Amino acid sequence: MPEGHVTHRLAIGFTERLAGAPVRSTSPQGRFAEEAGEVDGHLLDAAEAYGKNLFVHFGDRAVHVHLGLAGKLAFVGDDGGGAARPITGAIRWRVENERGYADLRGPQACKLVDDAGIRSITDPLGPDPLREDADPEVGWARVRRSATPIGLLLMDQRISAGVGNIFRAEVLYRHRIDPMMQGRLLRRKEWDAIWTDLVGLMHDAVRKGRIDTVRPEHDPVAMGRAPRVDRHGGEVYVYRRADQACLVCATPVRTTTLGGRNLFWCPSCQRTSRRRVPAARG
DNA sequence: CCGGCATGGCAAA
DNA sequence: TTGCCCTGCCGGA
User: Fold this and answer.
1) What's the CA–C1' distance between A79 and C3, in Å?
2) Catalytic status, residue A3
3) pTM of this structure
4) What percentage of chain A has pLDDT greater than the value 90?
5) Which strand C bases fall within 7 angstroms of a protein CB?
6) A254 is catalytic
7) Do the domain assignments include residue A129?
8) Residue A91 included in any domain
9) Is strand B less than 7 A from the beta carbon of A158?
């Protein structure tokens, strides 16, 4: 479930449902028991997202959550406290008040940290398209001098924090860029367009709780065909659509492994092989 | 029923 | 580059 839009959505959910009052903090599974106990009964100030990291603030400390690949955090809100709150499966962290509760399962990280700990996590992060303080120049500075494929660079949290496998595949498709093209061959205008698009797509995903990237003119539903909504819940061009027809040109979508992750692209729409622009003289 | 896979990231080799 | 971790879900037997 976890690209940046999920984390930001969770931060909003935490703040709306559980902030501003003391919470009960436990670890039914036990692996977070000691630290959960340290903030049990404490005031939950707010939750904040930075890329794929979630910080749940308690005074000068915070619980740092990173969902990783398998993690899930579910809110069960507004049960009024009267209903049973069953313990099913491995619940690393349960946070609750009289209104409702949240269960965290299978996170890659769940740890109580202080200010220095927070900084050590956020300092290396690049601009997050979902944050007001994001400076895309920081990402561009790395991209423009890198021989690494742009398909890998976009997954690099130092370049664009919060972007994951779906957004990387989809934004490259939308800009017709070959994922294997070296970062240094990307044009400034292209980076600007990619960044602006990420800001829009990711905010949209925060609002809707799903990733939709297909433009209206290519939308199967609008064109009278069946939706192709993926298990992740959104309507996409190429992500996890290997061998299926490209929505625009009908060429079979290709897939390969890049950096240990599955990459998807349309070999026809995404052809940006180009010569390196000669350096300006003088 | 069970193995593999997943929107991630780390360490080891 | 590979393996491993976390957990739940899905597809194939």
Assistant:
1) 42
2) yes
3) 0.94
4) 82
5) 1-10
6) no
7) no
8) yes
9) no
- A160 and A80, same domain (yes or no): no
* A189 catalytically annotated: no
Which residues have a Cβ under 8 Å from the Cβ of A187 and sit 6 or more positions away? A277
CB of A72 under 7 A from strand B? no
Same domain, A117 and A171: no
Is A136 a residue of the active site? Answer: no
**Nucleic strand B under 7 Å from the C-beta of A209:** no
Q: Would residue A196 count as lying in a domain?
A: yes
Examine the domain organization and report whether A105 and A186 are in the same domain. Answer: no
Q: Does residue A127 lie within any of the structural domains?
A: no
Q: Which domain holds residue A33?
A: 4-122
Contacts of A65 by beta carbon, 8 Å cutoff, 6+ apart: A53, A54, A55, A56, A71, A73, A93, A104, A107, A109, A110
**Residues in chain A where the model's pLDDT stays below 50:** 280-282
pLDDT in tens, A14-72: 999 999 999 999 999 999 999 999 999 999 999 999 999 999 999 999 999 999 999 99
**Given A17, A28, A35, A52, the catalytic residue:** A52
Selecting among A3, A48, A96, A170, the annotated active-site residue is A3
Are residues A163 and A115 part of one domain? no
Task: Write a three-state SS string for A30-59.
Answer: CCCHHHHHHHCCCEECEEEEECCEEEEEEC
Q: Which nucleotides of B are covered by protein (CB under 7 A)?
A: 6-10
* CA-based nearest residue to A239, from A211, A205, A272, A200: A211
